Amino acid sequence: MKIEEVIKEKPHLQSPIELYGRIRTFIDQCKREKDRVKLDSDISLIDIVIKTFSSVFHIPYESLTFLKDEILKSGKDPIKEPTTLWSLPIQSEELSKEEIERMLFIISKPLFVFLRREGQQASFMENGKCPICGTDSSLSMITENNERIMICPLCEHGGSFFRIGCSYCFNKDSSKIEILLDDEDIRVELCLECNTYIKSFKETHYIKYKDPFLIDLVSLPLDIIAQRKGYIRRSPNILGLRIIE
Predict the structure, then answer these.
(1) Are 132 and 122 in contact (CB under 8 A)?
(2) Average pLDDT over residues 14-31
(3) Is the pTM of this model over 0.85?
């Protein structure tokens, strides 16, 4: 389902879906550029990401070169640890703290995706976290075979997990998990043990939308309901948001 079609179907979610469309374009263009250009250093890859961000989000590249300087000064390696981008000490008179945090999150996204190897398979069974980048997941797909696939919001890796259970505290007692459903039967599983919630959608939704992160966004009202009930989303969505208001 194309972004334009989703917006027509869900006009009240136009703004976040349009932003997601840009983020998806950004990630895809970064992957193409990485494959096209012969890289001679990690800094070359950082350059690709910053230049592509500049192009997709219509921000002059000259206004973003300070990011590369801050990365070099930090002594961190965002290629191996993309989360280090989030803690760069950036101050701006033009951007708010929230806008800076959102920008750094979006810029980190392709770096997380680059951590994955083609065809890589690994489950979330060991500790409930993404086996590639160590992130908690708040999104899962239920397959036609009634198996559960957790989906990492950062590197986008999908791996198996227990059909019923909280990936945060490993509560597997179905009597301590409550269910909320929206009008598309996308569900939120509320863990009564640790106040965490996880969204789940059926494989038929994936066939419709072709994108788990788009499914996450079209069901944002479920996040609002769950959070108003006091439940916590442990990982961000594709826009970098954990708290939905």
Answers:
(1) yes
(2) 96
(3) yes
